[in-house]
Structure formats: structure tokens, C-alpha cells
Amino acid sequence: MLVRIERVVIAGGGLAGLRTVQELRARGYQGSVTMVGAEPRPPYDRPPLSKKLMMGALDDTSLDADAAALGLELRLGESAIGLAGLGGSAGLGGSAGLRETGRGGVLRTDQGEHRFDRLVVATGAAPVRMPGTGAQRVLRSLDDALELRSVLCPGLRLAIVGAGWIGAELATAAALKGCQVTVVEAGPTPVAGALGAEAGATTVPWYAEAGVDLRLCQAVESVEPGGLALSGGGWLAVDEVVTAVGVRPAVGWLDGSGVALENGVAVDDRLRASVPGVYAAGDCAAFWSLRYGRRLRVEHWDTALHAPEVAAANVLGGDEIYDPVPYFWSEQFGRMVQYVGHHTAADRLIWRGDPAGQRWAACWLAGPDTAADRLVAVLTVNQPRDLLQGRRAIGAGALVDPGRLADPGVPVRDAVAG
Ligand code: FAD
């Protein structure tokens, strides 16, 4: 039974939610669209929150979301709390033939119910907090950012828990504003989880140059009034604490709904959830990656921008595959850092240029086997050309000549073998 699609409901009012609406309309869909967003604000962009907005260069990051022009019923300050009346389970596979026969269902919210033929879950992710009774801030929403910005002042003793991307960007802004910044990181280097310790170590001197006190291999036990309780019995007295240790997918409201969850909404390579008629995109979606042969949940702006193209197409009966090469950027300590691809500790690292310099790149080749030198990931610092060419080569599954790749004078595209 194929269902006529007349009512699409979107849970989550961020970038992925808005992009889904835009893509549905761009594809000619004329039925109703309702978007339910927990925040009281219309959709806005998050990347500038830790960058230009934190520096005071802008105050508003609203996205172009004209609900009337989009024919969108935008329900702000309303939270999804569960699902009802679903059309049964379809099971989850990689690309295995799941047929869209769902009869839809009902999205339950804290303010009512919305019947749907198709539901797109785009509820994003929420920051993890530290234990303890002391006040701690996080940096996820526009309000978080505006409040935090208003307290950053010269001499403020600011502790940032976590030297990840957001911790580094916030440290950059706070140091420029004259705060005394201490970043406390449990790992051996910044961004060790994302890049590995060898590449992460290249960023250590950036903190010192900016006058930021970076404490590595130092776990925080809890946030207490007046400071941080450190593992090993230490104490760090500070005025403000920002916890930046990562996020978790905001999918708790789907517990018990029948929609399979695996560190996010488990969706296949077409962004379809285990229940027919339900899709997911953006930070909350753990999608099956054909390219990597595993489930990925990618917390990057680029994913929230593009995955909705596929979600919308498939909501409307299409059969498109979402198979991206993940991409993100970070602006920290006066540098543009970009990363494309996906690598593991088993992959081989090749430097292009001196990582102590201002412009360089690092490339990873697949696995320990040197017989096939396939490029799988590229990290660049102030080197966008390498990033662009690397992105194309990774997307094409290209083999490269490691010797030429290691020479920063040879364009990445000219290091592609054959
Ligand atoms: P979100 O933006 O999280 O939107 C989800 C929305 O759903 C939220 O408004 C949330 O309140 C709402 N919601 C949650 N639960 C419910 C519910 N039950 N009912 C209704 N609504 C709900 N990425 C990069 O690639 N580069 C960067 O430089 C970069 N910088 C960043 C800086 C900051 C400070 C932050 C926070 C993120 C940054 N990111 C960056 C990540 C990027 O912003 C995210 O990947 C992107 O916002 C994800 O969009 P989304 O729509 O999936 O989720």
C-alpha cells in the first residue's frame, strides 16, 4: 500500500529541520508541513555562536526562514514527547529493500498532537554536563551564547572543561577578551578523539601562544561552587565554568516509541528509520554509511545542510542514498582548520608541510597495508586548496602516490595515482 503524502511533520526546529522544509517545497510538495521546535526562537545557525557572535561581531544568527512563504506551520516553544499510532516496524538494513508502506502516525507534544503521513526527526543534540553542585554553562543555543558573552570580561577566571572544537573556539574568543582562560582536558592532547593524539598535538602550542593555560591528561571530577574538583585531589578556583565535553543525540523522547535507537535514530542509507514513514537527519541521525560500511552519526553543519535533501526526496517517494564524505571546519586561534573524510587509528598519517608552521595539511591513507594507498581523510590548517582537492579525491576513492602527497609543492590532485 503506497500512501498519498499530504501531511509532513518535522520534530526539531534547527538547521536540519528547516532544510527539510525547504527541500520539500523545492521538490514541489504542496501538502501541509508542521515543524515543532522546543526553542522559542525561529531556526538559527550555531557555528557563529562560538566565533563571530562570541567576539561581538554579530548578535543574531537567524536563518532565512519565512514560514509564510514556505507554507510552514512553525510551532515554537513546543517539544515532541512521543509517537502514537505508528504503522508497524519495517526492520532496518543497510540498503536492503525496505518498502514504504507506512500509514503514518501521530507526533505527541507537550501541547497536543500532530497527525503525519511522514515524520522527519531533526531534534539535534544536547550538551553533556559534568556532575557537581556548582554553576556550569554550556554553549549550544543562541541564548547560551548571548549569556556567556555578557560575562566574558578582562580578568575573569574562566575554566573550559574539554579541549574539543567548541572548547578551543571559546578559548580563542575569551582570551581575546582578556579573560584568564584555563582549559582542562582529560585526553593527552586537544581533539584527540576526533583526530588522534598525533594530529591533535599540533594544536597544543596554539593555546600557549594565545595565553591560554592548557592542562592535559587532567580529568575533572565535578563542578563545585567556586571551582573544579580535579581527579587526583586537585582544585581549580575559577569564576565561571563552561562544560564543552561533547553532546548526545536528543532522542530520549523516542524511548519506547518503537523507533530503533542506536546512539541516535538508527536510519538506513536512505535516512529511513525502523518504523515506516519515519526519517531522521542532522545531529540526531545515526545513518548507515555505505562508504564506510558502518553506522555514523555526524555532528557537523554540512550534514545538517545536505542530509535533508535526501530525507525530503525519500519522504516524497524517492529512492536516494545519503553517502557523504563528512566535512567540518573550526576557526580557532586565528587559524582555519578543516577536516574531510573519516579515519581510524589504523590509518597511516602523512604530513604535507611543517605542522609547526602557519599552513599545512595532514593526510591519512587507509589501513596499515601499503599495497593500496587510498586517501581517506585530510586535515588542513589555512590550506583550503588541499581540502578541496582532498575532498574530491576521497569522494572518488582515489589511490595516491604517498611520496608526491608528502610534498606540499605538489597539488593534492597531482598526487592522485594514474
Ligand atoms: P540542532 O541545531 O541541535 O537543532 C535541533 C533543534 O531541535 C534544536 O533547536 C532543539 O532545541 C530542538 N529539539 C530538541 N529536542 C526537541 C524535541 N523533543 N521537540 C522539539 N524540538 C526539539 N559544525 C561545523 O561543521 N563547523 C563548526 O564550526 C561548528 N561550530 C559549532 C559551534 C557551536 C557553538 C555549536 C553548538 C555547533 C557547531 N557546529 C559546527 C555543529 C552544527 O551547528 C550542528 O551540526 C548543527 O547545528 C546540527 O543541526 P541539527 O538541525 O541537526 O540540530
Q: Globular, elongated, flat, extended or rod-shaped: what is the shape?
A: globular
Regions with little confidence, pLDDT below 50 for 5+ residues: 93-100
Largest sheet entry: 5 strands, parallel
Q: Could you tell me the radius of gyration in angstroms?
A: 22 Å
Number of DSSP strands? 25
Strand percentage lies at 25-35%
Strand order of the largest sheet: 3-2-1-7-18
Secondary structure: elements and pairs:
Blueprint: E1 7-11, H1 15-26, E2 32-37, H2 52-55, H3 67-70, E3 72-76, E4 80-84, E5 105-109, E6 112-116, E7 118-121, E8 125-127, H4 142-151, E9 157-161, H5 165-176, E10 180-184, H6 192-195, H7 197-200, H8 204-209, E11 213-215, E12 220-224, E13 227-230, E14 235-237, E15 240-243, E16 247-249, E17 265-267, E18 278-280, E19 285-289, E20 294-296, H9 301-315, E21 327-332, E22 335-341, E23 348-352, E24 360-365, E25 375-381, H10 384-395, H11 402-405
Parallel strand pairs: 1-2, 1-7, 2-3, 7-18, 9-10, 9-15, 10-11, 17-19
Antiparallel strand pairs: 4-5, 5-6, 8-16, 12-13, 13-14, 19-20, 21-22, 22-25, 23-24, 24-25
The structure holds flavin-adenine dinucleotide.
